[in-house]
Design a protein that fits this description.
309 residues; alpha/beta; Rossmann fold; GMP Synthetase, Chain A, domain 3; 2 domains; 22% strand; globular; Small_GTP-bd; small ribosomal subunit rRNA binding; cytoplasm; KH_dom_type_2
Length: 309
């Protein structure tokens, strides 16, 4: 996400580096936690479930330890092809990691989704950490009982109680993971906070604004792709993005009366992209109808997902 070609990674043989996969039910707070630990926005966050679609990697440094947090899509019972791709990606990210962090919304406790997760986790032979999130909204006695209940189902190496939103105990969590990363060289330069290409991050930011603006099921029937990225002579950036929808009537909803909705989405995305890039951004959004884009392998490649057959 930045020009790191001139920076050197730590030399020597005393560095540690590894991957931590964060899994959980939708809206458990995985993206919020990654952003808080990394110290910058690398994964979009909305009030709607299943916002994260692909693996987002946030990179944190603690002393001579590099911890790569993998924000996975929320795991749920898949109904569509896109759902299956997201769930497969989440479990694939978990199994490829050095450590797994299960994030549980402490307000919801153990529901059917958590039961299913615990069943799957029991068969994965990797270090596992339980992270009870949103502790600022739950009484301590309830938290202790919940931690005991979950650890009786699956033995976790450690249990943390955190608030990803306000940062309570997230430093302790980073300290723990840093101390348990395998010996090895850093995989990313020191000032790199994510391996997400800027074009894809720009698409994600616009998709976040779509979710926040359209408070219905419509965002799930859409995807955003950055088609053009041009650096202008005055230092500004021209970005052209396409929002793909499945039907003509969806296109009209995205536009809104007098183009009000698409203008609001564009303005919000342009403002955040300008802050992120530190320069003026000229953002142009186009809405295209592509019937059954959810069955198009190319769209999955753009999202960083494997196409499920």
């Amino acid at each position: 996400m930045s020009d790191t070609s001139s920076l050197m990674m730590p030399s020597g043989t005393d560095t540690n580096c590894g991957y931590v996969a964060l899994i959980g039910a939708p809206n458990a707070g995985k993206s919020t936690l990654v952003n808080k630990i990394v110290g910058s926005k690398v994964s979009i966050v909305t009030h709607k479930v299943q916002t994260t679609r692909s693996l987002i990697r946030g990179i944190a440094i603690k002393d001579k330890n590099q911890v790569i947090f993998v924000d996975t899509p929320g795991i749920f019972a898949p109904k569509r092809r896109l759902d299956r791709a997201m769930v497969n990606t989440a479990w694939g990210g978990a199994k490829d990691a050095d450590c797994i962090g299960l994030i549980v919304d402490a307000r919801k406790g153990v529901n059917d989704q958590i039961e299913d997760l615990l069943d799957r986790l029991a068969d994965i032979k990797l270090p596992k950490v339980l992270i009870l999130n949103k502790i600022d909204l739950v009484q301590r006695d309830t938290l202790l009982a919940l931690a005991q209940q979950i650890n009786e189902r699956v033995k976790f190496d450690e249990t943390f109680m955190v608030s990803a939103l306000n940062g309570d105990r997230t430093d302790d969590l980073l300290d723990y993971f840093a101390a348990h990363m395998p010996r090895g060289p850093w995989l990313y330069p020191e000032d790199m906070i994510s391996d997400l290409p800027m074009r894809q991050l720009a698409s994600e930011i616009t998709r976040e604004k779509v979710f926040l603006r359209l408070h219905q099921e419509l965002p799930y029937a859409s995807t955003v792709e950055t088609e053009k990225w041009e650096q202008k002579e005055d230092g500004s950036v021209r970005i052209e993005q396409v929002i793909y929808v499945e039907r003509d009537n969806q296109k009209m909803i995205f536009l809104g009366k007098g183009g009000k909705s698409i203008k609001a989405i564009s303005m919000a995305a342009r403002e955040e992209l300008g802050e992120l890039l530190g320069t003026k951004v000229h953002l142009f959004l186009f809405i295209k109808v592509r019937a059954r884009w959810v069955d198009d392998p190319e769209r999955y490649r753009e999202m960083g997902l494997e196409f499920p057959v």
